[in-house]
Protein: tRNA-dihydrouridine synthase
Organism: Niastella yeongjuensis
Amino acid sequence: MVQIGNIQLPDFPLLLAPMEDVSDPPFRVVCKRNGADLVFTEFISSEGLIRDAIRCRRKLDIYDEERPTGIQLFGGDEERLALAAKIVDVTQPELLDINFGCPVKGIVAQGAGAGVLRDVDLMVRLTEACVKSTNLPVTVKTRLGWDDDSKNIEEVAERLQDVGIKALTIHGRTRCQLYKGEADWSLIAKVKNNPRIHIPIFGNGDINSPQKALEYKNRYGVDGIMIGRAVIGYPWLFREIRHYLQTGELLPAPTVSERVDVCKQQLHKSLQYKGPVAGIYAMRGHYLRYLKGLPGVKEFRTSLMTLTDPEAIAAVLDDILVRYEGYTMERAPIELVNYHENCPL
Ligand SMILES: Cc1cc2nc3c(=O)[nH]c(=O)nc-3n(C[C@H](O)[C@H](O)[C@H](O)COP(=O)(O)O)c2cc1C
């Protein structure tokens, strides 16, 4: 059992990463149904939440069935972050997570996201302000440090634990690495093995198969893992990892019927959450990812990308079922995209 404040999670929990424009309630539900133990919202601007509470309020919506859910905030001003934490408190997620990992220039320039890795005192003050202003357990997600010459995560972990965070997730890259190279989990393991550290430490970065999850679990000894890119279009990875950890066996790849089912489930939730127009648009990027690997499936692309009537879309999904009846999907490696590839530093 892993404990975050008063939240109890199973041993070695599998966490859905906060992902902007991806980790919305419909996707979180799909991940939860497929084995995620704890899910996070995309990052939410503390300024935005304070100034435009009505628009940002939608980002705080949580379906009961996806819980436990963490709401993630970012901001570079103590008072404003603390105020935003109070607003979040009212909506009753299970926990509040602070983003100290976003490498994007605009966020870093506000002294938020990974920007504070250059100013640990500020990071500590921001965290303490949040902890004091909410009753929720506060967690932090961050990176190894600012750049190769300033990997300060060991100091960061101790100091954030001292001001009351209840868990820490570490993406095994520096801010300046963005997504380049391989995530380095050895420093994450050092944090975990520090005898001063007693909060759960979750590893993050590059997990894309059950075998890698087991290997990293054994090699780095973390309390659980957070997964981002690999589950975009493949939420079944959560259950595959859980099954592999428990039995040492790989589950067969999800069937066509399971894939179509996930498309329908997410469409249904998306319509409910975003309404009839935005709900349809929001799904357009998802269908082909879920159906990736089906030979010839692109011929359905135009219909899935242009139809606006949910029943017509469901009919196309049913046609896919008929067309591929009896087809066995092979397991395929999950590629990790180099997100932020062209992002200016
Ligand atoms: C599309 C996308 C959006 C992201 N948005 C956020 C975010 O809002 N907050 C955050 O802390 N990290 C964000 N991240 C980073 C992920 O949470 C995660 O740390 C990173 O992708 C490394 O994990 P992975 O290798 O499993 O993808 C985002 C990543 C992606 C791919």
